[in-house]
Design brief:
By secondary structure, the protein is of the alpha/beta class. The chain has a single domain, classed as Vaccinia Virus protein VP39 (Rossmann fold), CATH 3.40.50. It has 7 helices and 7 strands; from the N terminus they run H-H-E-H-E-H-E-E-H-E-H-E-H-E. The chain is globular, with a radius of gyration of 16 Å. The protein starts with a helix and ends with a strand. About 4% of the residues have low confidence. The chain binds S-adenosylmethionine (SAM). The site of S-adenosylmethionine (SAM) has 19 residues, from helix 1 and helix 3.
Length: 213
């Protein structure tokens, strides 16, 4: 586990509440199964997870930040919802085959080495149930900070940037539902954590895809 990155996110979540990613709304499956399961890898403070839970999903989430997990748990209790949360590195999470109707991996993968992203995405693809949907985002090679020496507090922990072409290739075998630039700009993330000293937002790619039935 990357202890320093964990500490940054512990501090961050101590005084910041994330905003739900509106894109998820459009792709939530209101399922015909009795229990829809969702896995949120790098769940943060549960801002997206709670949205899934409110829409009937049984939610599983993990994160390296203990503070984030505590906040997610509190959020669920406050809303009389039940979730399964764990302080765990996404690289160590066991993703059972064909088990999840929705898997989220939002703004986490760039903290992994490229080969680790490939391993994780292969696990995600296996873990989706038939017709299951994946929501994945990662910092883009079009990011203003790509290959630059930024002073942003997170920069030294960011290991992987990808192009849209690479992301598409990663999810080979799934049906493409959406591939777009900069979800953070779209969501108007107010926090400074992803801004550099020149106030450029770090840009990401969002991929949404579906496994065949
Ligand atoms: C930008 S936040 C995104 C949180 C949430 N997914 C969202 O979209 O609101 C990045 C999150 O990834 C977590 N994280 C970073 N590296 C991780 C790893 N290797 N395993 C698990 N969580 C990680 C951080 O603690 C933080 O909560």
């Amino acid at each position: 586990m990357n202890v320093k990155l964990k500490n940054i996110y512990d501090d961050y979540f101590s005084d910041y509440d994330s905003k739900c990613n509106q894109l998820i709304n459009n792709y939530i499956q209101i399922g015909n199964k009795k229990t829809m399961k969702a896995l949120d890898l790098g769940v943060g403070d549960g801002v997206n997870a709670i949205y899934l839970a409110k829409n009937g999903y049984e939610v599983f989430g993990n994160d390296i930040s203990k503070v984030a997990i505590k906040k997610a748990e509190k959020k669920f209790i406050k809303n009389s919802l039940h979730g399964h949360f764990e302080v765990k590195d996404v690289r160590d999470v066991e993703i059972f085959e064909s088990s999840y109707d929705f898997i989220l991996c939002s703004m986490v993968a760039h903290y992994l080495e490229k080969n680790e992203v490939v391993i994780l995405v292969n696990k995600i693809k296996k873990g989706l149930s038939p017709n299951g949907i994946v929501f994945f985002s990662i910092l883009s090679t079009d990011d203003p900070q790509y290959k630059k020496n930024s002073q942003n507090i997170l920069s030294k922990y960011i290991k992987t940037f990808m192009s849209k072409k690479e992301v598409l290739k990663l999810f080979d075998g799934l049906s493409l539902m959406l591939l777009q630039d900069s979800m953070m700009t779209a969501c108007n993330v107010p926090s400074s954590i992803y801004y550099d000293e020149g106030n450029n937002i770090m840009g990401d790619i969002v991929y949404i895809g579906r496994k065949s039935g």
